[in-house]
Amino acid sequence: MKPCIFLLAAGLLDAILTHVGISSGFIEEGNPMMKEVINKGWSYFYLIKIFLPLLLLGLFYLKPFKGTIRMLLISTCVLYLSVLVYHTVWVVLYLKTSA
């Protein structure tokens, strides 16, 4: 359950930081699929970033993940953590350049 909650929190933080970074002109969306979603509207972007982890939470509640599925979930958490580290780097760079 904890990895699913982490993905929900990380997805929301990723969405907020991505929105701020793109709106400020400091970054661009690197994922072509999410770039298309953003072009359709930020509300769709937030919906996806929140809905998918909530879906995982619901599935986990119905049947806890074990074995390979759990390992893939943990791997996804590690990848998302690296995305958040990347966000931290550009936030620090942005703050340094705007100061």
Quick tags:
99 residues, mainly alpha, 4 helices, globular
Ends distance = 41 Å
DSSP helical segment count: 4
β-sheet strand percentage: under 5%
Q: What Rg is obtained from the alpha carbons, in whole angstroms? A: 15 Å
E-strand count: 0
Strand count, sense and closure of the main sheet? none
Helix share bin: over 70%
Whole-number average pLDDT?
A: 87
Q: Please tell me what the overall shape is.
A: globular
Series of secondary-structure elements, N-terminal to C-terminal:
HHHH
What does the secondary structure layout of this molecule look like, with pairings?
Blueprint (H helix, E strand, L loop, with lengths): L1 H22 L8 H9 L1 H21 L4 H32 L1
Helix pairs in contact: 1-3, 1-4, 2-3
Describe this structure in words.
This protein is mainly alpha-helical and 99 residues long. 85% of the residues lie in helices and 0% in strands. It has helices at residues 2-23, 32-40, 42-62, 67-98. Helix 1 packs antiparallel against helix 3 and helix 1 packs parallel to helix 4 (67-98). The longest helix is centred in the C-terminal third of the chain and has 32 residues, at 67-98. It is globular. The mean pLDDT is 87.
Describe the structure concisely:
The protein is an all-alpha fold and 99 residues long.
